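User: I've been going back and forth on whether these two constructs are worth ordering. Before I decide, could you fold them both?

Assistant: Sure. I'll take them in the order you sent them. The first construct and its structure tokens:
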Amino acid sequence: MNEHLTIVGHDLKFPKVSLTEPSRSFYLHIAAEIDRSPFPFFLATSRRKKIVIAEAKKWCKKVSAEDGVVSADVFNAILIPPGTGKLLKERPGTPLARYDFAILIEVSTQQKLSEILQGEAYKRLRANLEKITEKVHIITATNVKRIAPVDHNKQGVFLFNYFYADDRIQNLEVWEYTAGWFQKETGLDNSTVLLPINEKTSQYKIINHCRWDSIWDILPSLLFKKSFHSYVLDNFYANKVAAMPVLYKLA
């Protein structure tokens, strides 16, 4: 453990998270806030968003057939669940993650990642996103910690959890410390933590990505289990970390 990690709730005994070796892949993550909602859920989809989703799915299907591409998927947000914690209230200028559209592309080499970024289809999609919304977040990343690969081959409820923190190492340490709670309380058996390659280009220190079969596998635990606050959120706050979770479906 990082010697600067502050632990609260020692009396709450949760098992240490079970991790496997991180993937050697490289990732492109694109997130955008297209349809803004005053509510924590997304019911309607605008015409402009439908057009972007169709374009993105067509591009990802083509990209996924290329050598060196592991997966390329488009996500449409359904819910912003509980979990942001107290730190963001104390820092009103923090950029909030309420992205209702996301793409995740996984490739085997950094060279392949560069080829995608230099492609006309990527540049066109990025330009279209920037035309319809000012809130677009794009990073390239590696996998720094992993429970197991996230299955994109079947529908489910997918989490992108955008972490704001003062210190990246502290963020990773407290994520690992609290992830055991999710394994025990929600049956989580997969997770890929994305670490931005260039920290200066990202508003978030890390982005955690994982999947459950159903929203009922995760939401009741966040709403009704007191230890989510006293163990997970309180440890985040004690270490100057704020999670900004968004739940998605495959588009």
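The second construct, handled the same way:
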Amino acid sequence: MSSVHARVAGARESLRDAGLSQAEADLGARLLAEHVLGWDATRYFTSGSEPEPEDFAVKYDALVSRRALREPLAYITGRQDFWDLTFDVSPDVLIPRPETELIVDAAIELLRERPGNRGPLRIADACTGCGCLAVALARELPHAHVVATDVSDVALVVARRNAARHGVEARVRFVRTDVLGGVAGPFDAIVANPPYVRAGDRPGLQPEVRDHEPAVALFGGLDGVDIVTRLVAQAPAYLSPGGYLIFEFGFGQDMAVEQLIAAARGLTLVGLRRDLQGIARTAIAKRL
């Protein structure tokens, strides 16, 4: 009988043959094994040389075949880590990315020291998807109440599940609407990871993204800034004086974002934050 490690070694080769990078194949093969076995990484490395359980191969090989077809790992396991939390995900929602944590960082930095005599913090999370921003901020800011919006009913089902999973369902209200339409403000902050991929970029996307993630959460029109434009235009009416708009945008869109904020009456640009590759990814604007 094969060991777990031997089975995983074979899976790594299969995933590389399917076009995954060595790093992606190695990580995916291991994480799928841990998922099937219910093990953590420590158990995998200490016990993986033992013979594989009787029903492991069939279950594991089926998941590896799905990954070889470029189905995202997070959709196969149904989980994705974000911030220091684990979120339920499905093909109904965008998979949270590490760069989106820049929004959480900025919001906490700007809001945590706000005087408590003004009452509870009010935050809006537009285009919430799986709810990762709303839930992470509700966890980090216990005095905050969050309104999270999305146009997708099925995405909101996932987001509500994540709010309950992390014990913040009493402070996060989910609303089906487009961006901020019809939501009652004002808010101390609006955060958003809106769709911003250019429609023409679709053919060049990784298969995991192009063929599996929801188009409604990805594409922002010909220039990628259709939803961003509406978000920036709407924000001043929904922000308290001194409130912040914090949102993610795509590669090469920084000049367009700066121009949108400059043209929005009542908003001023605080700054842009960059990811680990030095790419501007997050805008911070303030309501005058």
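Notes on the second construct follow. The chain has a mean pLDDT of 96. The first helix runs from residue 4 to 17.
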